[in-house]
Design goal:
By secondary structure, this protein is mainly alpha-helical. It has 14 helices and 8 strands. It has 3 domains: 64 residues, no CATH class; 110 residues, Tyrosine recombinase, N-terminal domain (DNA polymerase, domain 1), CATH 1.10.150; 196 residues, Intergrase catalytic core (hpI Integrase, Chain A), CATH 1.10.443.10.
Length: 388
């Protein structure tokens, strides 16, 4: 197949849209493929267009309606996923798609796949591990997230479809049962945690736990935090990079956050004082070693090496055990922070969304709906007090 025409248009958002004509329908109208370019300049966009045309000609797509699920997954999703998802997520989603969806949808045209067909595959899925009797609803939702990412790329990047069919899939609710993921700390438990930081924690642990709780940042974002990212005059912390496990399963620093490019978090004076004292310890260590590394990570080594996210977890777990606190994951401090804020009816959901770095407020609503229920009950109690 020879591509007859290609063009690049600049969109209002500042990005570029590439379009190619791959044929004509029975009425003589052109059949086009469209894709959003990741280039930053028009010249680079045209270079990307040439690469895309070469790829399309090599794979012989005649028109949009001929692209199968497997062709799109292998040729397009795998390439785009590396730029929009974490490496660990790419590996997980690839495994799910290849084991759960490729067997059913391999040769099916991507524009013909319907919500009920996706739901059937998910509900019929059986555990690969024979020791498990059935898959949890959370696992099934993970399956939906994986295949949804394929349709999202087809919709947002390539304009092959106008609607993501996964958005119409609703899984049946499970009966109430114990979950393996612990609940975030309650307000009383937060008070115990803060008290324990003064009584049982090292300087590093105290700053680490306060950073996680007060900013709601993820482990990788905290591990990548540098001294230059802290503004003691404006009382803010700037998160703009993260530590991730790459395709070779080695940790590396990457620009940007999981769901956004950056976020600026205001923090209290008392915390900044504790943080400043801890940083002064690092600065004194560098002075004694007579070194001045390019990267001065808050929780890293004096030589400029970042701390692994797994090490932050172990630090937290040792503190919890020593202080006799209820065991929760280090990541659950992020949930605790969000729940604590959402329990205050005077704090807008939008504010919490921005603090957590969620792209959509609905993500915040879905994850922390229990905290919103607490807010509703608090409002009801206030009415009860008034009536009494």
């Amino acid at each position: 197949m020879a591509i007859e025409k290609g063009s690049v248009d600049k969109l209002p958002s500042g990005s570029f849209r590439m379009r190619v004509t791959v044929g004509y329908n029975e009425k003589g109208n052109p059949v086009r493929l469209s894709k959003v370019s990741t280039a930053t300049t028009l010249r680079k966009a045209y270079s990307e267009l040439d690469e895309w045309i070469e790829y399309l000609e090599e794979h012989g797509y005649e028109d949009v309606s001929s692209i199968t699920f497997k062709n799109f997954y292998e040729g397009m999703w795998k390439k785009e996923a590396r730029t929009i998802l974490e490496p660990r997520t790419v590996r997980e989603y690839s495994d799910i798609i290849e084991k759960r969806f490729i067997p059913t949808f391999s040769n099916k045209k991507i524009i013909e796949i319907r919500p009920y067909q996706i739901k059937d595959v998910v509900l019929a899925a059986q555990p690969i591990n024979e020791s498990k009797k059935e898959l949890s609803r959370k696992t099934k939702k993970r399956f939906l997230n994986a295949i949804s990412s394929v349709f999202s790329v087809a919709k947002d990047q390539y304009r092959i479809i106008s609607h993501n069919p996964v958005s119409d899939v609703k899984l049946p609710k499970e009966s109430m049962k114990n979950t393996l993921i612990p609940e975030p700390y309650s307000i009383d438990e937060v008070k115990l945690m803060l008290q324990a930081l003064d009584e049982h924690a090292s300087d590093k642990t105290k700053v680490l736990v306060l950073t996680a709780f007060l900013t709601g940042a993820r482990e990788g974002e905290i591990a990548a935090l540098e001294e230059k990212d802290i503004d003691f005059n404006k009382n803010t912390i700037f998160f703009h990079q993260r530590i991730v496990l790459n395709e070779e399963k080695k940790y590396e620093r990457r620009d940007g956050l999981k769901a956004s490019q950056s976020k600026l978090i205001p923090v209290p004076d008392h915390y900044l004082q504790v943080l400043k004292e801890y940083i002064s310890i690092n600065q004194e260590a560098r002075k004694k070693l007579k070194i001045n590394p390019k990267n001065k990570y808050v929780f890293g080594s004096p030589e400029g090496q970042f701390e692994l996210p797994t090490s932050l977890y172990r630090n937290w777990y040792r503190f919890v055990k020593r202080a006799g606190l209820r065991k929760i994951r280090f990541h659950d401090l992020r949930h605790t922070s969000a729940s604590f804020l959402l329990a205050d009816p005077e704090i807008p959901i939008k504010t919490v969304q921005e603090l957590l770095g969620h792209k959509d407020y609905r993500t915040t609503m879905n994850i922390y709906g229990h905290a919103l229920e607490e807010t509703k009950r608090a409002a009801s109690d206030r009415f009860s007090t008034l009536l009494e």
